[in-house]
Write a structure and sequence with these properties.
The chain is of the alpha/beta class. The chain contains nine helices and nine strands. It is 37% helix and 20% strand.
Length: 198
């Protein structure tokens, strides 16, 4: 059992919190207020950032002291949205939200994952017709191992998990968000994920 704080109570944060609670973890969900987030993080061993990516860096920098020595699982994508509200460009071209978080929070172990799929796949990967892939990016091997365990609790099989390496590899998975609006316009808002097949 891990004490987990989920920052963000929208569709992503809510579905992750429910699934992790069902898996036996102690989960607290914080809303967008600074006091709620600080209180949740103080008592957590692991924190999930499910806040909108465009404002995540500012929100999490404000929690620097509370996040010290914590694992921060970043599932957000920082984008500039188009007129239709769908992602149109990256907020950090040539870099990534995860890299900015790790640089701004040197005493926090940042792990990027679950950001290459629609939110409903995060907690139900077996519902897809083909095998999906989930990626890990981060500088701390022990933190990534902990996150592997959480992914297993969310029904991800070990062979579906690909460790890409250091936090700098998150710029590749974050760029995958640019596929999303085109896939949605082509096929509708149905569950999908990026998959590496061999």
């Amino acid at each position: 059992m891990t004490r987990i704080a989920v920052l963000g109570n929208g569709r992503v944060g809510g579905s992750l919190a429910l699934a992790l609670t069902r898996a036996g973890h102690e989960v607290t969900v914080a809303d967008r207020s600074p006091d709620s987030a600080a209180d949740a993080v103080r008592t957590a061993q692991l924190v999930i950032n499910a806040t909108p990516g465009a404002g995540s860096l500012e929100r999490l920098i404000a929690l620097r002291e509370e996040l010290r020595d914590r694992i921060l699982v970043d599932v957000s994508n920082a984008t500039l949205d188009g007129p239709d509200g769908l992602p149109a460009d990256l907020l950090y071209p040539g870099s990534s939200l995860a890299e900015h978080l790790q640089e701004a929070l040197p005493d926090t172990r940042v792990v990027k994952t679950l950001n290459t799929m629609l939110y409903m796949v995060m907690t139900a990967p077996t519902t897809l017709a083909q095998t999906p892939t989930v990626f890990l990016s981060g500088n701390d091997a022990d933190a990534k191992q902990v996150v592997r365990g959480l992914l297993t609790d969310l029904s991800w099989q070990q062979e579906w998990i690909t460790d890409l390496g250091g936090i700098e590899t998150a710029r590749a998975t974050e760029a995958a968000i640019l596929f999303v609006p085109h896939v949605i316009r082509s096929s509708g808002f149905t569950p999908f994920a990026i998959s590496v097949t061999r």
